[in-house]
Amino acid sequence: MVDHGAPPVALVTGGGSGIGRATVARLRAAEWSVLLADLNPETGPRAADDLGAAFERVDVAEEAQVEAAVARCVAEYGRIDAVVNNAGVGGAFGALTDLAVEDWDYTFAVLVRGVFLGVKHGARAMRAAGAGGAIVNVASIAAYGGGAGPQAYSAAKAAVLNLTRVAAVELAEDRIRVNAVCPGVIATPLVGRDPARALDGVQPWPEVGRPEDVAEVIAFLCDDASRFVTGEEITVDGGLTAAGPRIHAAYGGDPRKRGLTGVNRGTTGEPPTIRSGR
Ligand SMILES: NC(=O)c1ccc[n+]([C@@H]2O[C@H](COP(=O)([O-])OP(=O)(O)OC[C@H]3O[C@@H](n4cnc5c(N)ncnc54)[C@H](O)[C@@H]3O)[C@@H](O)[C@H]2O)c1
């Protein structure tokens, strides 16, 4: 990002709630000028008012609306330094064998086409200005496997990760960085009921993730502090994916819980050593 002597400028989609709202707050605290784009006509303008951002009602699945939001940033602030493609919905749910095509298409339109349009129009404006920039796409740990979100959502978030990589490769010569964040379970209105109980014994970190935890990483990826980071995803999940499948515990329980240590010598015919106490 070139220093223009004026605050940097960001477009944040889905800024009316949850992770997007926290991201707008975090960027405003660092004195960014922010255009908050959201489809919700109530929460969007309210968040923008509260946080000192501008508001544009945008459906990220509609190309003309995304293009207009980027154009507004350039017209009002003279440039655009960052685009945060965060808007999202849970999308289609239920068995693949029963899913309606229009529900599948809606999910991909918001989660994948919406990110593509933010990349396309954000990068065009950044390239035209010749000063580089940063694009951050909000994916999910649901992109990593089949068990962390509804089917269409998981497939769409996996597409966002590879879209991030191909965009990073294409846009590097323009010094436009493209990265993704993969939140785990974050307490936002999207997740609904208090997730703490569902995470008990599943997520290693004791507290549930907050929108601010993700916003902090997004802000880092928007900032020149990450100037050599591109095509990367950063997981923000309290160790959820690091823990992987909890098969060890399922095999006869966790020896740590019984205060046991020792060594298992497998099928060598030699006995295990089992020690109690710490
Ligand atoms: N909360 C989590 O646990 C979690 C985990 C992984 C990934 N994510 C992702 O983080 C992003 C933000 O989610 P959140 O939890 O903050 O949700 P949220 O529901 O609190 O906020 C999402 C915002 O996106 C807006 N939005 C939805 N569709 C839109 C559209 N077509 N055009 C413009 N705006 C639209 C909504 O109006 C809302 O303000 C999403 O992409 C979501 O998939 C969330």
TrEMBL record:
KW Metal-binding (keyword) present: no
Record GO terms (molecular function): oxidoreductase activity
Keywords for the protein's UniProt record, in alphabetical order: Lipid metabolism, NAD, Oxidoreductase, Steroid metabolism
Entry's Gene Ontology BP terms: steroid metabolic process
Gene3D superfamilies: NAD(P)-binding Rossmann-like Domain
Keyword DNA-binding part of the UniProt annotation: no
Region (Disordered), start-end ranges: 253-278
Family to which the UniProt record says this protein belongs: Belongs to the short-chain dehydrogenases/reductases (SDR) family.
Record-given protein name: 2,5-dichloro-2,5-cyclohexadiene-1,4-diol dehydrogenase
